[in-house]
Design goal:
Length: 111
């Protein structure tokens, strides 16, 4: 997937990137329940995977980065991420203080 050497994702730098970038085009997949939210999620996970070499983001980091942009509070975001996990677009990683989600490579490439 063109990953680079792992470095800590700087959430404040990612927040700045998200605040300055043009909103992504909503996904054209008719099976997507929330095409714009999926597009934002693909954008930030692509940055984390390709630029930082990480495989996942915590729910709280995802919330911090795109929660407001996609109009989802913490509970709604967890439900949204869990739905994507159940249909195979994301992998859920248990452990630590909270769950993390990583993208299925084929979903990440589907934009």
């Amino acid at each position: 997937m063109g990953t680079s050497k792992q470095s800590d994702p700087d959430i404040s730098a990612l927040e700045e990137f998200v605040s300055e970038v043009e909103p992504p085009e909503p996904l054209s997949n008719p099976l997507s329940a929330d095409p714009l939210a999926e597009a934002w999620l693909q954008l930030i996970l692509t940055m984390v995977v390709r630029e930082h070499g990480h495989t996942s983001l915590s729910i709280s980091d995802i919330q911090k980065l795109i929660g407001e942009k996609v109009g989802k509070g913490e509970v709604e975001l967890k439900v949204f991420l869990d739905r994507l996990w159940r249909i195979g677009k994301l992998e859920r990683i248990h452990g630590g203080a909270e769950d993390h989600y990583s993208p299925n490579p084929s979903w990440l490439e589907s934009h």
